[in-house]
Amino acid sequence: xRLKNCYRTSDFRQLAKQRLPSPIFHYIDGGSDDxxxxxxxxxxxxxxxxxxxxxxxxxxxxxxVSVLGQSLDMPLFMxxxxxxxxxxxxxxxxxxxxxxxxxxMFGISTIGTRSIEEVGAYNSAAxxxxxxxxxxxxxxxxxxxxxKASNFGALALTVDTVVAGNRERDYLTGFTTPxxxxxxxxxxxxxxxxxxFNYLLRDSLDLPNVSGFGKNGKSAPPSVIEYINTQMKGSIxxxxxxxxxxxxxxxxxxxxxxxxxxxxRCVDIGASAIMISNHGGRQLDGSRAPFDQLxxxxxxxxxxxxxxxxxxxxxxxxxxxxxxxxxxxxxxxRMYLYALAGAGYPGVARAIxxxxxxxxxxxxxxxxxxxxxxxxxxxxxxxx
Length: 384
Prior knowledge:
CATH superfamily: Aldolase class I
Low-confidence stretches: 214-221
Shape: globular
Number of helices: 16
Largest sheet: 8 strands, parallel
Radius of gyration: 20 Å
Number of domains: 1
Strand content: 5-15%
Number of strands: 12
Helix content: 40-55%
CATH class: Alpha Beta
Oligomer: single chain
Strand order of the largest sheet: 4-11-10-9-8-7-6-5
Structural class: alpha/beta
CATH architecture: Alpha-Beta Barrel
Distance between the termini: 36 Å
Mean pLDDT: 93
CATH topology: TIM Barrel
């Protein structure tokens, strides 16, 4: 598989599988437990069909939308994911370039591999920071202050990782951060010399936003699982979220909301947006897919808060189905992570460009010139 032959997410997935050692690929690709929710995140979109209008006289298509106080040229943006330079040395800067080029937004993770300051100074692309509540309140406050100083447009508090999910693929492949050579992984690293040499010869992997706060104060990057289980506060509450909203004082999303009751609480505490998300199927297996929950949540809080569908997006039609139902926008991780892992910035740019082109083409096929033209009547529940 070559980049020029990649046209859909599954193609970029195959490219990433070719380029990455097995433990690294499966860290991106896998979910928790039996991976039922991982699969459902995408298959949920197949439960409804699009019903297009014809003879609509559509020539130009307007995909613009406002999300978290930022104006975007398309209703799809790149969700934050951890450890990006582990997959390709371009890391988070590839997202920043692609977001700037295509007028969309990207997020960086607390467990990111580029610093808040470096990303903030890189370009003027719309960006937000994904944050957790830490045991050490001074670390949380420090991250907020750094985001303010670096002109990040919004914060997103992730609330579905009070403990790390049971990601059994990582146990089977021997995935660790930093990667370690074991009898099980040695052959895979040896067979992917391009990745191995890049990892060994470029700047060493670091988590610059939290370095120094790992176990025993070590600056070496902890594993993601170690960081979640030792540094993040496991008993977070609505009071914690409300206090962070007040401290930040700007557009604020709560990421990981799945229930109507929680959506209502987000409105009550003054959040700007909710991201309906199950962490890409990497936390509670057997939980609902974001698209499955969208209508119920919109019925409860639509119009009171921005509602973002996060996860499972593989096609432009997935975005249009969510938008027709009434979502504010959509976001995803694997849709660009495979492309990043396979080809760095050129891969991310191609993946986003293809999805944007799908959105434009499919809007014309739907007979819609702007996102406002998408209506619930354009959706039909699929009969069994």
